[in-house]
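SAMPLE LOG
Freezer: B-3
Tube label: C17
Construct: single chain, 166 aa
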Amino acid sequence: MKCKFEQQLTDADHKSLFGWAERVFPAEGAKYSWVEPTNRIVTRDSGIAIAHLGFSRFNLEINSKSVSTIGVGGVVVRPEYQGKKIPYTMFSKLHSSDFLSPQSRFSSLFCPLRLAPYYAKHGYDIFNGSVRFLQNNGHVEAKEFVFMLRGIRELSGDIIIHSKPW
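STRUCTURE (predicted):
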């Protein structure tokens, strides 16, 4: 298996990664529009995409200040490869990469509360303030999700994201 940074996914990659179930991602997110990642870490076995971690740079507005973050989303592993610590390898690759520069010194993600313990194993902590993000009718706060941060603990206040969630 090889884990590497990639920019694009082919149609075959999409089918392999996201076509194995009717709903691959948590049902809680079905009513929201999500950002397509600009960067990816893809794990392949014999050239076939078996795991994916998407990410992009985003700006958060916190107490009227702009703060840069790497937003992580689209974490998926094909069922037959689950339990093999593949996400650990992908998160380690991201967290040790140049993408987490001084300008983007922390990473963040959205997940249902039930998945927070899993992401805590990768170093993410639940943010306890309000987080609002852009949807068709303006900014909304999703009660179905928690916002998690890695690499920063002193963050307080409310967060406004001027994009769709990741």
